Structures are given as structure tokens and as C-alpha cells.
Amino acid sequence: MRTSRRSVTAAAALAVVGLVSSACGTTSSGGAQVQQDPNAPFEVWTRSTEAPAKVYAQLFADFEQKTGVKVDYKPIFTDFEKQLQQRAASKDLPDVIINDTGSLGTLVGQGLVPELDRSSVVGNGDIVERAWESAKGADGKYYGVPFSAQAFVTLIRKDWREKLGKPLPRNWADLADLAAAFTTRDPDGDGQANTYGMLVPGTTDRGYLAWWASSYLLQAGGDIVKADGDKYSVAIDSAESVKAVEWIRGLFCDSKVVVPGALTLNTNDAHAFFESGKAGIYHTGPYMFGRFDQKLGKDKYEVIAPPAGPAGVGSLAEGENIYLMAGSPRVADQKKLAEFLISAGAQRAGMEGETQPVVRLPVNKNVDVGTVYRDARWNTVAKLYQDSAKPFPSLPNFQPFRQQTAEGLNGILATCSTDVKGDLGKLAENLKEELAAQGMAG
Fold first, then answer.
1. Which of 61, 111, 236, 255 is spaced 20 to 30 A from 139 at the CA atom?
2. pTM
3. Which residue positions does the secretion signal occupy (predicted)?
């Protein structure tokens, strides 16, 4: 059991699961009520598996060499949120975390991150404006520093496609046709019916099925919720969203081109289906390029923007922010680390991870994707992010929307006889209640 590194006043007590957090983040520095201690451990967490953790470790070593500030680094993947909640409840948060942009609303709502004065961050003007938007809360204030950006792309087994004489898919019809061919025409040539077209990580854990499906909702012109001025309205039951979900269910129930067990499959387990030759199409993040290049072979698969749906090309835009956590006794070093990580040199280093870059698309506009990667696939990602990708909305807390949508979609896809429109209507009523509860209903 760790000894608490900081002393937080009763008024600044962090509240998670019934404990209320308020005063820890009353200033842009986040440290007005916390005694500063330059000798306290400086703890940094990232949501990382082994390969990206090595890249982060080198970045933090470079930071120490440059500044003399030693980082107590903890890469965590399993139960990241649970462990963070436990530390918040004990009033002993890490000093900095690097986590996805979608977690911003939850962190703000629980008082775990203070408001950030964007103009006080050295190098803030070098960050592309679109990345800054992902660090902005529903109240228009900033609560993180952008670190990395990305858009989901579609990976296809090139060797399978060429063997079967199929063209690159341009639209949903082409994609479904290719998935059916991969499932029924023995693309690996082993004489066994053991390949599938679509790899879907359909678990409801962390709302991941909604993550995967959101790109297809966008391609149909639908969404989970949509902006309505400075408020939002529910869009999951719109005609466009219904069309997208019906198309997805067709992959599961009609053509049966999805890998078995998809609705309980998490991302870590899903990757193996693609690299081991069990699935031929995978809509996922570009952070997988390095792993698949090594385990499958760069020549065996290709990367394309998602084929167009009825409303055109669309994809989920994501990224990671640097969150300067409330209650830190090392406020100056929090900002110093953030400023280092957004510098052009650190951004380039983060892109050069041997298997998994921790900076996917740089947020620093002085770093050129083509020059660093020298890989046309990343140019595809960059163009998609710029032209056709859309992030989850900046609601006070998007997690309930993501989680309820994942659970609703999981139920629809698990039972092929359900009424898609009716079930999405029921889901929409729940989401409307959540919008109202957050004060965001239009």
C-alpha cells in the first residue's frame, strides 16, 4: 500500500462514487489548495500495453535528461478507469495521465482535472486547432493538452482480395460483397471453411461496440446524438441511424460474415483474428500498423479510408490528451511535461515507436506526417482525419451515451428477429433522459 503523496484539504476532497470533488480544481494551475513539494514523486500514467509503454518510457527518459525531472511511470491497460477511481477515492491521484479524448467529460464531471489556461502552455500556438477542440469541455473551457490524433481506417487482406479477383471496395455494397467472398470462397486456400469477412470487437466493455459502429452511423448520415445549437438531440433512432444498424445486422444475421463470438470480443483479443488469418476486414485504429506489419506482413494487407455509406465517407476521430490531474504537489512539472510532449521533437519521437507509435497523427503543426513516417498509409489517415472524421461530442459526460448505445446495439445484433427501429426508439428514450439529466437537451 502506497503512502499518500499529497495532503488535500477537506474542501478539495476528490469525489468519486459518492465522494464529491470540487475545490481541487478551482484555478487553472490546479494547485491553489495543495502544498507544493518538488521532492514528491512525479507519477505519470498512460493507458498502454507493453509495446507503446516502451516508447513512452523513452520519452520520459528524454524529458528527465532535458529537465532533470524524474518521472515515476506506470503503464496501465487493464482496469485503467477502475484503478484511477480507486486512487481518486483515496485522494491520491497520479500527477499526469495520458488518456483518450473521450474520457474528458468524465474527468471534468468528477472534478479530477482542473480548468486549463490554454494560453499559459508554452507552444500552445503550435498545436492544430482541431486537436484543441478535443481538449475542450461542454462549457467551452479547456481541461487537457492535446497529444495525439487519429481516425479509424479499414484494413483489408490484400493477398486474399487479389487471389479472389475482387476490387477494392468503394461503398457498402462492395464491402459486404468482399466480406462474403472472404467467408465463403476459401481465400487462404487451405480447403477449410475457417475464414470470415468482418472482424468486429463487439464487447460492451467501455462501450466499445458503439466505438466500432459509430463510423458506420456517420457513413449513413446518422449518429448517437447531434448538436442542436449549444445543446444536443438524440439521433440514434433517426432514419439514417436505423439504416446503418440494419446494414450492420445484415452482416451478423443474413450473410453471416462476422467472426464467431464477436459480441463478447474485446480489442486485444480481436487483433489476433486478423493477424492469424481468420478475418479479412478490420475497421480499427492506425496504431495497429506496426504490430500487423510484424506479425502478418506489410505486403499482406492494405489500408483504405472506410468505403462510403449512403451519406459518403465517414470515420470516428479520436486522440489522446495530456491531463494535468487535480491535487498535484508538482504543478510546475505537470505543465513542464505537457510542454515537452507537444514539442516538435517529442512528437516526432512519439511517432517513431518500433511497433506502436504513441503519437499517431501529430498535434504539432510543425511535424509533417509524410516526412516522419515515409508511409502512404499514414497520409491516408491524415487526409481522412482532416476531411471526413468526426469526434464524439463534447458533452459533460459522454460515457453513459457510449455505454448505453453499445449495450443496445449488442442486444440488437445478438437477436436477429428484433425490431431494429423499435429497439433504437427505446434506446433513444433512455438517451433523451440522459441528455436532460446533463442539462444538454435541446
1. 236
2. 0.87
3. 1-22
Chain centroid offset of residue 153 CA: 13
For β-strands 279-284 and 196-199, DSSP reports them as parallel
179 and 240 inside one domain? yes
Q: Per-residue DSSP letters for 114-181? A: --B-GGGSTTGGGB-HHHHHTTB-TTS-B-SEEEEEEE-EEEEEHHHHHHTTPPPP-BHHHHHHHHHH
21 close to 13: Cβ distance less than 8 angstroms: yes
Summarize pLDDT for 31-67 with one digit per residue, the tens.
456 999 999 999 999 999 898 999 999 999 999 999 9
Which of 371, 390, 409 is the endpoint of a domain? 390
Give the residue from 390, 405, 423 where a domain finishes.
390
What contacts 12, CB < 8 A, 6 or more positions away? Answer: 21, 22, 23, 24, 33, 34, 326, 327
Interaxial angle between packed helices 50-67 and 331-341, expressed in degrees from 0 to 180 and rounded to the nearest 10:
110
CA dihedral sign, ordered 99, 105, 106, 111 = positive
